[in-house]
Design goal:
The chain is 74% helix and 0% strand. It is built from 9 helices and no strands. The chain is elongated. The chain is mainly α. It has 2 domains: 51 residues, Arc Repressor Mutant, subunit A (Orthogonal Bundle), CATH 1.10.10; 132 residues, Orthogonal Bundle (Tetracycline Repressor, domain 2), CATH 1.10.357. The longest helix is centred in the first third of the chain and has 24 residues.
Length: 199
């Protein structure tokens, strides 16, 4: 078991070195050699864990997606639909330095998918998981909506989240992201008003 734990830790450390390389120099700079240097390990040691660049990138993308999912799952819900919806959706926006860096790296990895087919299933799975989360948020806010309306509202929410995320990423890191949270609050209130279920 300790050897397995050590291997998992080493893989995570190498994935984090990939993320750091992408943030500092772009995805084109990611190679076995540059990531080994970033992680402070020998190239041979890295190749023992990830024999190819594509395996390294695939694992890095998958680990990032899994960590984001774990954060969402760990969100403590209060029973207040609007507060809970906001708490869940905030995870999808680059509101802090860590989540901003994460989105930066995620976009770079998505852009690499045409050249690296191994990333396509991760990209598609992540997209489907966010779509499902948006549907669940709509159900939370407006449980009385018919299925067709729920699907449409979830697609609208997903598009809004994507747009807000890109706008936030485009503004200076030190800028106040509060405007995006307020837009999200307004959208949550609008969806809540669609609920046909007696409260």
């Amino acid at each position: 078991m300790p050897r397995r734990i050590d291997l998992d830790r080493r893989r995570a450390e190498l994935a984090e070195a990939v993320w750091a390389t992408i943030r500092q120099r772009g995805i084109g700079a990611v190679s076995v050699r540059t990531v080994a240097a970033e992680a402070g390990v020998a190239v041979g040691s890295l190749r023992h864990v990830f024999p190819t660049r594509s395996e390294l990138l695939r694992f890095s993308a998958d680990l990032m997606a899994r960590r984001a999912t774990e954060r969402i799952i760990a969100t403590e819900l209060t029973g207040d639909p609007e507060a809970d919806a906001l708490a869940l959706l905030r995870h999808l926006l680059p509101l802090e330095a860590d989540s901003r860096a994460e989105l930066d790296v995620n976009l770079a990895l998505i852009a690499e998918a045409p050249a690296l087919p191994e990333l396509v299933p991760i990209r598609d799975r992540t997209h489907a998981e966010i779509q499902t989360m948006c549907e669940r948020v709509i159900e939370l806010l407006a449980p009385g909506l018919p299925a067709t309306s729920l699907t449409r509202e979830a697609a609208r929410l997903f598009a809004l989240i994507d747009g807000l995320a890109l706008h936030l990423l485009g503004q200076a890191a030190e800028s106040d992201p509060g405007w995006a949270v307020e837009i999200l609050r307004d959208e949550i209130a609008r969806i809540r008003e669609l609920d046909a279920t007696p409260r």
